[in-house]
Design brief:
Blueprint: H1 11-15, E1 18-26, E2 29-30, H2 33-47, H3 54-57, E3 68-76, E4 93-100, H4 105-110, E5 112-121, H5 136-142, E6 150-157, E7 162-165, E8 169-174, E9 177-181, H6 191-199, E10 202-205, E11 217-222, E12 226-234, E13 240-243, H7 251-261
Parallel strand pairs: 5-6, 5-12, 9-10
Antiparallel strand pairs: 1-2, 1-3, 3-4, 6-7, 8-9, 8-11, 11-12, 12-13
Protein name: Aminodeoxychorismate lyase
EC number: 4.1.3.38
Family: Belongs to the class-IV pyridoxal-phosphate-dependent aminotransferase family.
Length: about 270
């Protein structure tokens, strides 16, 4: 754990001027590490500062020891600057923390219930794909429900196109083809999503919410939890929009994701 007092003028604290990564670590070995490091480096370039040295970052996962942990990395531009104008020579800050972790295995097997959120994500291509520290949209969306039976909320952009869940990426099968939302306008480009796109025939498409009820299967996934099949979709008022029986159709994409994370495959 590396947790020091955050200076009042740290730009991550003041403005959300920074990035973070959440990495699954098994017995000291990070999963999808290259994808996490590439996204972090890409984010630093996009925000316009030099990130931590890769050699130093590579030493962190082994500190977790045995068992399953999540390593959270937080990188900010550092201190200073006049108002929003960043300092000419920023000194980025890095903090990290390990947390013991156990996945929701019952959600792998039984599927989950999700809802549509009222909140709409702002379209901002300059930040699209990044896992930046400005996550107020996700915070507001997650406050829309308190029902513990609802595992996640699905988010659209201001044009009504599906983007993601509050903390997971979205996949579906339609007419026998795997698809996922395009993330060129907003949303977080997850590392598990990137790995699946590289390995499997998944098309990036634009789709409105009213088309979602007609898909053959629906999943949520990220690099920590794995892949959850969706059994029920509600609207923002709690009315059921669609139900899907969890069957063999769900397992190929789910098992492909779990193979990348060292999680067990599932069969019906």
């Amino acid at each position: 754990m590396h947790d020091t007092v955050i200076p009042f003028d740290d730009r991550g604290f003041a403005y959300g001027d920074g990035l973070f990564e959440t990495v699954l670590v098994r017995d000291g070995e990070p999963l999808l590490w290259e994808a996490h490091m590439e996204r972090l480096a890409r984010g630093c370039v996009r925000l316009g500062f030099v990130g931590p040295e890769r050699a130093m970052l590579d030493t962190l996962p082994a500190q977790a020891g045995q068992g399953l942990h999540v390593l959270k990395l937080v990188v900010t531009r550092g201190r200073g600057g006049r108002g929003y104008l960043p300092p000419a020579d920023p000194q980025p800050s890095l903090r990290w923390q390990f947390s013991a972790f156990a996945p929701h295995q019952e959600r792998w097997r039984e599927g989950i219930r999700v809802r549509l959120c009222r909140l709409r994500l702002a379209i901002q291509p300059c930040l699209a794909g990044l896992k930046h520290l400005n996550r107020l949209e996700n915070v507001l969306a997650r406050q829309e429900w308190n029902d513990p039976d609802i595992a996640e909320g699905l988010l659209c952009d201001s044009a009504g196109r599906l983007v993601e869940a509050t903390c997971m990426n979205l996949f579906w099968q339609r007419d026998g083809r795997w698809e996922t939302p395009r993330l060129d306008a907003c949303g977080v480009a997850g590392t598990l999503r990137a790995a699946l796109l590289a390995e499997r025939p998944i098309a990036e498409v634009a789709m409105d919410t009213d088309e979602l009820a007609g898909v053959d299967a629906l999943w949520l996934g990220n690099s920590v939890q794995g892949v959850w099949p969706v059994a029920r979709l509600d609207d923002a008022e709690g009315n059921t929009v669609a139900r899907w029986p969890i069957t063999a159709i769900h397992r190929p994409l789910q098992n492909a994701g779990h193979a990348l994370l060292g999680y067990p495959g599932l069969a019906d």
